[in-house]
Structure formats: C-alpha cells, structure tokens
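I hope you will forgive my troubling you with a question about protein structure. I should value your view on which stretches of the chain appear to form regular backbone elements. Here, with my thanks, is the record as I have it:
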Amino acid sequence: MADKTKIGFIGLGTMGAGMARNFQKAGYPLVVHDIRRAAADQFLSAGAVWADTPAAVARAAAVVLTSLPAPPDVEAVALGKDGILDGAQPGSVYCDLSTNSLSMVKRIYAAFAEKRAHMLDTPVSGGPAGAASGKMAIWVGGDEAVFKQVKPALDSIGDAVRYIGPIGSGTIAKLVHNCAGYAVNTAIAEVMTLGVKAGLEPLELWRAVRQGAVGRRRTFDTVAANFLVDKYEPPNFMLKLAHKDVGLATALGRELGVPMRIANMTLEEMTEAMGRGWGEKDSRIAMTLETERAGIKIKCDPDAVKKVLDSE
C-alpha cells in the first residue's frame, strides 16, 4: 500500500482518538465516523472528512479500521445496515482493532470474503497512553499478503506490529494476554491483602516484593497507579471492558474444552465488582474486594509511591 492512501477510521473514543491522531501525524488522509459527531471535530479541523455512516466510510477509503467497545458493536458497524460491508469494494481491507470474539471475527471475515474484500483481526495492546504515543503492540490475524499490504499504515499507530497467523490469531493472542493480566491482578490483590493483614505497611511490603524474582519482572509495578494508592478514577481501562475481555477468554476456553479455573475465579471477582456499579471505574478496582473481605484498607501516599518508582 502506497503512502498517503486514504484511511477510514470508525470509533474515535479514548483508544481510537489516539490512533486516528497518529494516522494524521503520519500524513494519511482520514475519513472518519463515530456515534458521537462531536468526537470527530478535532480530526475534521486537522483535515479529515466526515462520513455519515460506516458504509460511506468504506466507499471513500480502501482501508477501514474500527476501534469499538465490544463484539456486538463491531458486528453492527461491520455487518449491520449501512455497515462497512455495505460499502466495501472488492480488494478493500477492513482491520478491526477491537478486542473481539473469535467466532465473530471468523464470521465477519467470511462475509467480507464473499464480497471479495478482506478482513484482518488487529487487536492492540498499550492502553490509552500507548494509543496516543504509538507505543503499542498490534497482533494481526488473516491473510499474510493482505497484512503486508497494510503494515506500513499499521506501523503508524504501533511500534510492535506482528503477523500471528490465520484469521482469528490476533484475537486469540489478545485474549490470552488480557486474561493473564487480570488473573495476575487477582493474585496480587490476594497476596498483598495477606501481607497487610499480617501487619506489614503496604508501601514497605510493595517495595520489598517488587525487588524479588517475580517483582523484578515488574509484575507488582502494574498496580502502583491505582490499587496501591486507592485511586480508580479517571480509569485507564474501564472495568466493564476488562470484564468483557476476560468473559471472551473464558468463553473461548469453554468452546475449546480448556479448564480455566483461575480465569473463571477472576471473572467472578470482576462480575461482583460490576454488581457494585463500578463498571465505569478503572478495572483494578475489583482488587479491592479482597481487602474489603479481610477488613483492611490499602492506600499509600502517591508521592511516596512515585519516589519508589523513580529511585528503585
């Protein structure tokens, strides 16, 4: 794909906005659409063109990308009335950056193939900061020749773009990654609660364990910005989206006959947290269920935590 090929981008939320900005910085003309018209204003002022429907985006751009919350949203935008498929031309490419389900990805791929168009599953990892900075992993599943065609564009929004295998491979990699991360959160909540309940100050306990063999892989540093300081707003990644991701991973496990005991326990924790009305808060708020059960509170001084991160 030559430079300056027109890019269609649908879904200009927290993640999508950062990626769309990076396309513009790289010089790609954009055609944009979002459920909220106002979300496109910053891109339109920088030269992007608005399209009223996903189908209109697909008619105007040979490569269309979506960044959407959940599989039903992807299905509606890709396959629904006035969806991307309605406007897709033979040879065009659709890349879904969302965390999707394996069955949905395969269904969309098949529908596009019938129209002689292409679909790649291209989920991303890096959070809002990575979407803004371009420091993101992008795991790609689909036809390798099509991947090579769009890789220059994907390189504009991620610094670790990797072809994984046939359609669905990127989705599998993303579900494995995200499910592992939230299972680790559940384990950290449990062991930190144990240590604090046993009498240790949370900051000193955290400083100690992050220098052990597990800690030196910086596993414990992942909780510094939220669980350790008891701060879950604004969210880095909302609980309702994390719950969706782990739910997709455990569903895939059931489909394949893979026992996922820890992942299912993690999902139960997240489901309980969702029941508390915490869906819009940062996903690690589910970790506080363990401290609550133990009757303790973990809340360190943010400046003290930053000092440890900067100096040790």
